[in-house]
Amino acid sequence: MRRFLCMATLVMSVAAHASPASADLVGSGIIGGTFTEGDSGVVALRTGEEVFCSGVLMAPDVVMTAAHCVAVTRNLSVLVGSGPAGEVIPVTEVHLHPTYVPATLENDIALVRLERAVADAPRWSVISLEDSWEGKPLRIIGFGKISREDEGTPMKHTGSAVLAGLQDTRLSVAAGPSIPCFRDSGGAILLSIEGEEFLAGIITTGSVDCTPTAMAYGTRADVFLEGFITPYLEATASEGGCAAHGGGQGAPGGPVTLVLIGLFVLARQSRPVLAATPRPGAP
Question: Which of 29, 51, 185, 224 could be 66's S-S partner, Cβ–Cβ 3.0 to 4.6 Å?
Answer without folding.
Answer: 185
